[in-house]
Amino acid sequence: MLHRQFLDHAKAVARFAPVRPAVKAGLRAALAFFVPTVVGTALHLPSALWLAVGGFNTSFVDKGGSYHARFRAMGGTALAAAVSAVLGGLAGMHPTLAIPATLLWVTAWSFAGVYGAAANLTGNIAATTFVIALGLPAAGVVPALESGVAVLGGSAWAMVLSLLLWPIRPYRPARKAVAACFDAVADYAEGMSRTVQGAREDAWQALIQEQHGRIRETLELARTTLAATRQGRVERGRGERLLVLLESADAMFMGLIALGEQLETLGPPVSGPVGDPRAAVAVALLDCANTARDLVRLVEQEGRSRRPQPDWDGRALRDAVGDLDARGLITRLERARLSDIARLLSELRERADVALDTACRLPGPLTEAPPPTRALAEESHVPLWDPVRAHLTLDSEVLRHALRVGVTTTAAVYIASVFRPNHGYWVTLTVLTIMQPYTGPTFLKALQRVLGTVVGGLLAIAVSSWLQNPHAMMGLLFCTAALCVSLIPLNYGLFTIFATLTFVLLAELGSGDWTLAPVRIVNTLIGGALALAGTFFLWQRSEEHRFPAQLADALSADREFFAVLSRAWQRGTPPDGTALAEARRKLGLATINAETSFQRLLNEPRWRTETVEPLMTLLAFTRRFAAVCTLLASRRSVPTSPAVQQALSRYAQAMDASMEDLAQAVRHGQRPKPLPSFNALIGWNVPTPDEAGAALGSEAPLLQSQLERLARQINVLHAAATRRLEPAPSTINTH
Question: Any transmembrane segments, and where (predicted)?
Fold first, then answer.
């Protein structure tokens, strides 16, 4: 067990994110840090360190978007860091004042996360600046004010560099984010093409698990990025078209989900003189993937481009179905399924055409009214104190985390004041860097921080033993600073290695003490131990208690998605597009939250007595239930005869009640009630179907088949929820 636990943690520490290094961001951050360092050293400024701190930290805040939003974020961070430097320097002059000041200041800035991710980053920078100043107390009021001015000076240089000398194009982050959506859609279409040609039996389930969550996260990231980019801008052409493209990518994703769900119902390959119609579907899906790749290129590049002319839709499949039907090689239900697949392919092509037309005109002015789209989630102007009031409870994860960080950092400051270790602020910096709102990520980051510091410290010892020329050392520091920022997206451990190498060598160069690497390692070990102790013993709430609520929310979102369909059936009309899109998006986000919670549960360093298989099944079939609902939502009409309406009404009521009971059972750890016989309600495969069920089977065999498929999903969910409460034959150690 210990061997497996060690391997799991080792894999997590060494795991690389599937992204490219941020080379340009690294070079720009290195310039923001290096130029103030050189200037301060050359002019023998007493606050040279604070110039470098201001430039380096402020460069992290620039995440792209409109100039107004970037200026506001960087400027706000600069002011917060400058005030923190002044107050920290003053508090450091009086040890008795340092302890309560740390508790108040760090807790307050850690609580800034109630205002979102950007405020959380600013709060972290303000807190780290404060503890650095606390560890380097000012000699008086004037030197403390000078340190604050130096922070503002370094931050001003970073802002000039980011906004004027080396700006990120305002819409470039948004264009890349939207292009990533089409890239993800292309990957999904290619995977479907491979699967439909006869892959292993569980290939469809594996494809859903691999792709659905990733694509929804990509779409939501693009939505957030585009909203931030458009905020405060009056230009409409490119922003409106990017919004149309984002909605087109979302629509193509929904179309592929419906198509995949229908493809999975096909029987074994048809052999004979006509051939297997699935070959035509596989070719069309590959062509769809190529069209999505064309959209990636069109969205990413600047300038006008010639519109590609894709040659794929559902016509080839319709011809194949007609030949098979004429020869009597397929049943009525098979013909209905294949015809529906052809319809879905044609609709997918229509959505791709809208996206191609929009992408080819992306750089130009808006001369026509854009197609109607859903509004982006813009920042709402809520009262300033509302988020604070909402989180002033120990049930709030933000407040619990802020208190944890504040108390643990205060303990680190107290230890540093008592034992006075060399560069004691490295201990408090480690605490602030490692501690995360959840136990699993904190433990992982602690491992990466400690191991990265040890490796970086050993490299610093090796470098300082043979290279002590100041000019050569400054050149090396520029390279290592650029590397550490460039590698952040790939792996935090790699960032720590080069950050340790950079700041240890810089400290050694400034002090002339070439033995600081072991000090850095020891201080990091102390800070890591404090961070883990604070995480485990201060208001910790295990993911074991959070996960059932997250999973129940996902099941409730499934129920709401189905409710949109059932209301439309009662009216005899297609589902409302806006309500459907919002319900599908809410479901996607709820499922992502549940899957993220489950991963945190697995990463928590503790023994588990509950088997993970039922939990994994519940997560997997929550998505499968949604996929069948997406297929049902793609129907253009539903039979409206009284008998069919009666069958659909009874089925919908039973499904709604069963999903509600299932969500509550998962939330409260109870056994769900027995399910009704959904097959009997629709007259599918039962000895004596009632009149309503028989009417449904005769009028709409394809609809009946899809409803029976939905019933299978809830049966699997129900069985997993029941199995979760049964005693396991043996315990499973997830870590």
Answer: 29-53, 73-91, 97-118, 125-142, 148-166, 450-468, 474-507, 519-539
Those residues whose C-beta lies under 8 Å from the C-beta of residue 571, and which sit 6 or more positions away, are none
Token code pair at residue 657: 């009640």
Tokens 């996607």 -> residue: 588
Question: Are 195 and 302 part of one and the same domain?
Answer: yes
Q: Quick one: CA torsion of 655, 657, 662, 667, rounded to 10 degrees? A: 140
Amino acid at 505: L
DSSP code, position 394 = T
CA–CA gap between residue 352 and residue 360 (Å, rounded)? 12
**pLDDT given at position 698:** 52
**Could you give the CA distance from residue 87 to residue 141 in angstroms, rounded to a whole number?**
10
Following DSSP, what letter does each residue of 77-107 receive, concatenated?
HHHHHHHHHHHHHHHHT-HHHHHHHHHHHHH
Q: How far apart, in whole angstroms, are the C-alpha atoms of residue 379 and residue 227?
A: 8
The answer to whether position 381 is within a domain reads no
Are the CB atoms for 536 and 542 separated by under 8 Å? no
- Rounded Cα–Cα distance for residues 596 and 580 (Å): 24
How would residue 723 be classed by pLDDT, with cut points 50, 70 and 90? confident
Angle between helices 701-724 and 642-668 (to 10 degrees): 20
Q: Kindly report the number of other CB atoms within 10 A of residue 520's CB atom.
A: 24
Do 350 and 445 reside in the same domain of the chain?
no
Dihedral of CA atoms 623, 629, 632, 633 in degrees, nearest 10, equals -110
Burial 283-302 (b: 16+ CB within 10 A, else e): ebbbbbbbbbbbbbebbbee
| Residue 275 burial (10 A CB sphere; 0-12, 13-18, 19+) | middle
The C-alpha atoms of residue 83 and residue 77 are separated, in whole angstroms, by: 10
Query: DSSP readout, 133-199?
Result: HHHS--SSHHHHHHHHHHHHHHHHHHHHIIIIISPPPTTHHHHHHHHHHHHHHHHHHHHHHHHHTT-
- Which residues fall within 8 angstroms of residue 584, CB to CB, at 6 or more apart? 254, 561, 626, 630, 633
- Signed CA dihedral, 587, 588, 589, 594: sign only: positive
Please state, in angstroms and rounded to a whole number, the distance separating the CA atoms of residues 497 and 475: 18
- Rounded Cα gap, residues 472 and 483, in angstroms: 17
- Whether 696 and 681 have beta carbons less than 8 Å apart is answered as no
* 526 & 555 share domain: no
**CA dist., res. 152 & res. 507, Å (int):** 22
CA distance linking residue 37 with residue 47, whole number of Å:
10
Domain tally, the chain: 3
d(CA 219, CA 527): 38
643/497 same-domain check: no
Helical axes 470-486 vs 48-61, angle rounded to 10°:
20
496 and 606 co-located in one domain: no
- Residue 538 vs residues 124, 395, 403: alpha-carbon distances, Å: 19, 14, 8
Entry pTM: 0.71
How far is 292 from 289, CA to CA, in rounded Å? 5
Concatenating the DSSP letter of every residue in 290-350 gives HHHHHHHHHHHS-S--PPP----SSHHHHHHHHHHHHTT-S-HHHHHHHHHHHHHHHHHHH
* From 286-300, 534-548, 658-672, the region with the lowest mean pLDDT: 534-548
Torsion angle, alpha carbons of 428, 434, 439, 445, to 10:
-150
100: confidence class by pLDDT, cuts 50, 70, 90: very high
Q: What is the 3-state secondary structure (H, E, C) of 369-410?
A: CCCCCCCCCCCCCCCCCHHHHHCCCCCCHHHHHHHHHHHHHH
Longest dimension (CA), the chain: 96
Cα of first residue to Cα of last residue in the chain, in angstroms, is 8
CA–chain centroid gap for 333, Å, is 40
Contact partners, residue 581, CB within 8 Å, separation at least 6: 250, 374
- Give pLDDT tens digits for 247-301: 889 889 988 998 888 888 776 555 544 457 778 888 899 999 999 999 999 888 7
